[in-house]
Design a protein that fits this description.
41% helix; 4-stranded parallel β-sheet; binds pyridoxal-5'-phosphate; globular; 15 helices; 17% strand; alpha/beta
């Protein structure tokens, strides 16, 4: 028996070894108590305001709106949160919970490094020991964040197994947790994993949607017509979507990594590949998982380390079944073009992950009316991506939105995204 619902429709659940069950039960019980504890909520809110810099603002992207024609575009500026991404909201919440449970050691996994930096930051603040697992490929492409984590006092543990990206880092983190579960809290970074993580991470990220709704009403007198966010595991998206779930007129759009195109399989779109998108269990949760024909976890590819993961958060699978949210893809080339466009037109360098959401806006806004509003969750800032982007943008890609229909598997590679083997 669980205290909170453990599934979203038929997705989610808790598929873990026996040794982890007591820790998950303890976590669920403590999270439920903390949720109803005014002192805990005040402490967390105090840190979000005085330490993390919340509320993050909403910026009207006037030059981008003008260039694209159509809808007015607004940006929810999670890039301005302390440490440069939405990940800090969840890291502070879970680190406080670990403290409540008397666990003084934190482990985390990270792809883009932003969750690792957020975890290391929360641990430094609260005086907790911190070890972060990171795939070697991701360590190479997100080197500035590796340096930041070490500076913050965390131990970064390189992972050399498998594709040496996020999936493999999570494998290692779970192995560590099984061994040290008495003393250690696993600070999972997205709305993924066994129950209660998808629910708990959503609750800690709800602050994005709550603020965005209030701010949009104050700024424009209404809710947006569409709210767009990139989807790795799905935490920034579920945080934003939560604010508008009860507003049926707000279209919710999640954007997955289309990589080099759906047809060739070099992507991380769990929903739109007719050959590889299948139901399965990865890291304790039942959801859409990219798989090979014999059921192995398929290799993924994205220019952005934070979207390069084979499974999607279970609540997104459910929202898609309900028809409440729609999921699209942006290729590496489209994300890079959007990265340039936002930088040059608005003076805001987005994280490559967030650039996928901007790419969807580039496609969608021109088809909308001038009295309509499109809100983008700018999940993080792009400083960490400069090493990746600089060589790729040596010959700038076309800034014209691509008409290709990737969702139908007809996408073609823009050719600007390098393969993993070339990145080393
Ligand atoms: C800036 C940024 N945005 C988005 C993501 C994707 O994660 P999620 O889907 O959980 O928001 C990451 C993950 O590392 C990230 O660093």
């Amino acid at each position: 028996m669980t205290i909170l619902p453990s599934k979203f429709g038929s997705y989610g659940g808790r598929y873990v070894p026996e040794t982890l069950m007591p820790a998950l039960e303890q976590l669920e019980a403590e999270f439920t108590r903390a949720r109803d504890d005014r002192a805990f909520q005040q402490k967390l809110n105090g840190l979000l305001v005085d330490y993390a810099g919340r509320p993050t603002p909403i910026t009207y992207a006037s030059r981008l709106s003008e260039r694209l024609g159509g809808a007015r575009i607004y940006l929810k500026r999670e890039d301005l949160a302390h440490t440069g991404a939405h990940k800090i909201n969840n890291a502070l919440g879970q680190a406080l919970l670990a403290q409540r449970m008397g666990k003084r050691r934190i482990i985390a996994e990270t792809g883009a490094g932003q969750h690792g930096v957020a975890s290391a930051t929360a641990c430094a603040l609260l005086g907790l020991e911190c070890a972060v697992y990171m795939g070697e490929v991701d360590m190479a492409r997100q080197a500035p964040n590796v340096f930041r984590m070490r500076l913050l006092g965390a131990e970064v543990r390189p992972v050399s197994s498998g594709s040496r990206t996020l999936k493999d880092a999570i494998n290692e983190a779970i192995r560590d947790w099984v061994t040290n579960v008495e003393t250690t809290h696993y600070l999972l970074g997205s709305a993924l994993g066994p129950h209660p993580y998808p629910t708990m991470v959503r609750e800690f990220q709800k602050v994005i949607g709550r603020e965005a709704r209030t701010q949009m009403l104050a700024k424009t007198g209404r809710t947006p017509d569409a709210a767009v966010a990139c989807v790795g595991g799905g935490s920034n998206a579920i945080g934003l979507f939560s604010g508008f779930l009860d507003d049926p007129d707000v279209a919710l759009i999640g954007v997955e990594a289309g990589g080099e195109g759906i047809a060739g399989g070099k992507h991380a779109s769990r929903f739109s590949d007719p050959e590889r998108s299948r139901l399965g269990v990865l890291h304790g949760t039942h959801t859409f998982v990219l798989q090979t024909p014999d059921g192995q976890i398929a290799e993924t590819h994205s220019v952005s380390a934070g979207l390069d993961y084979a499974a999607v958060g279970p609540e997104h699978a459910h929202l898609r079944d309900l028809g409440r949210a729609e999921y699209t893809v942006a290729t590496d080339a489209e994300a890079l073009a959007a990265f340039s466009l936002l930088s040059t037109l608005e003076g805001i360098i987005p994280a490559l992950e967030s650039a996928h959401a901007v790419a969807e806006a580039v496609r969608r806004a021109p088809k909308m009316k001038p009295d309509q509003i499109l809100l983008i969750c700018l999940s993080g800032r792009g400083d960490k991506d400069l090493d990746t982007v600089t060589p790729l943008l040596a010959s700038p890609p076309s800034l014209k939105p691509s008409p290709v229909s990737l969702a139908n598997g007809e996408g073609k590679s823009g050719g600007t995204g390098r393969r993993k083997s070339e990145r080393k």
